[in-house]
Amino acid sequence: MSDKSFPPQQQEQPGVEQQMTPRPDSGELSYAGSGRLKGKKALITGGDSGIGRAVAIAFAREGADVAFAYLKEEQDAMETWEIVKREGVDCLYFQGDVADKAFCTGIVQKTAARFGRIDILVNNAAEQHYAETIEDISAEQLERTFRTNIFAYFHMAAASLKHMGEGGRIINTTSVTAFKGNPKLIDYSSTKGAIVAFTRSLALSLAEKGILVNAVAPGPVWTPLIPASFPQEKVEQFGENVTLKRAGQPVEIAYSYVFLASQGGSYMTGQVLHPNGGTIVGG
Fold first, then answer.
1. What are phi and psi of 172, to 5 degrees?
2. Domain range holding 194?
3. Which residues pair with 214 in a beta bridge?
4. Do the strands 65-70 and 120-123 form a parallel or antiparallel pair, or are they unpaired?
5. Domain-located, residue 2
6. In a domain, 204, yes or no
7. CATH number at residue 64
8. Superkingdom, according to UniProt (predicted)?
């Protein structure tokens, strides 16, 4: 097996990182921090695995205290917690469903109570289901995908503003599918397009408060969502259709979040970064 392809594999939703072959690179051995977020307080949804785990590790290595939420992947979550704690920062974890507004409000309040404030909110948790045609997407699946992928972003942002001052950062995870679509991920792609509009609108709304709102739109990334979403033969070919001819690793995406959360991103708001393996979007 080369580093550009993966063995056929499949999991049930939402997917478990420890069952993936090969394991994703979340930066435990490859990310070196330099104190760019020292003293900052961050809250990340979907932080147990994939991009969320890589962001949690990177933020911790940059000096931030980290809280993260996860749905039910207990083993992955505990592994993330242990890695983050080894960096000497404070770390909280919350198990629950971000599709539930009360859960969103609750974890924001608990994070702020422990850390004193929230400097960085990363809306990242997502749900993705493969469907051959639009007729195969049930009303229940459609609503569930929207509740997880975009409603939760609204709830998390609204609750966090009470604890976020000037210089605060909100970073939303969208996707390359928001810009080029995907015929087998119609509901997922639709939510990711909504996240782009949400990011731009919230950035305009919060500019006077000095809070910056941006997004990251990854291309194909090797996370638990992939074997939990696609047929085995699609997993085997995953990422081969981009310019770089391979899927990205979560740690490669985490650098974009660190940039937007740090002083380097101080003159950016309402923008989308595109770590996507070379897909050209937007003209």
1. -105, 140
2. 34-273
3. 171
4. unpaired
5. no
6. yes
7. 3.40.50.720
8. Bacteria
